[in-house]
Specification:
This protein is an all-alpha fold. Helix content is 73%, strand content 0%. The N and C termini lie far apart (71 Å).
Length: 123
């Protein structure tokens, strides 16, 4: 019985990792196509230049978050070192490399948006 109980957390980790990979891929596509969920807490009654600055600050904060997220995902990869899959000839870190890769892709997509944002700067 203890062997079965020990195997269940690994299965939960695998399912969580597969879900995380799916979320990361969808998040990248949403950021790339500019269809991700975003909140506008400031409202519409403001000067265009102020709105432009707030939008820029939001984009830069997203890039900062992705940098922290991507950097800390290496800790997850290190924690999974040495844990093999039961059905694949790979170890767990192979699955978790999607975390920093997707963070990098999303950050690059946001950098492109920041570049385009400077082209829309109000006069």
């Amino acid at each position: 019985m203890p062997a079965v109980a020990a195997a269940q957390p690994q299965e939960a980790v695998r399912q969580d990792a597969a879900f995380q990979e799916g979320v990361e891929l969808v998040s990248y596509v949403e950021v790339r196509r500019n269809i991700h969920l975003s909140a506008d807490f400031a409202g519409f009654a403001m000067k265009p230049h102020t709105r432009w600055r707030l939008d820029l600050a939001g984009l830069l904060l997203c890039i900062l978050f992705l940098g922290v997220y991507g950097w800390n995902s290496f800790k997850v990869i290190d924690a999974m070192d040495g844990i093999p899959f039961t059905s694949l000839p790979l170890e767990q870190p192979a699955l978790y490399w999607s975390l920093p890769a997707s963070a990098l892709l999303m950050a690059l997509a946001l950098v492109v948006r920041v570049h385009a944002h400077f082209g829309q700067r109000p006069v």
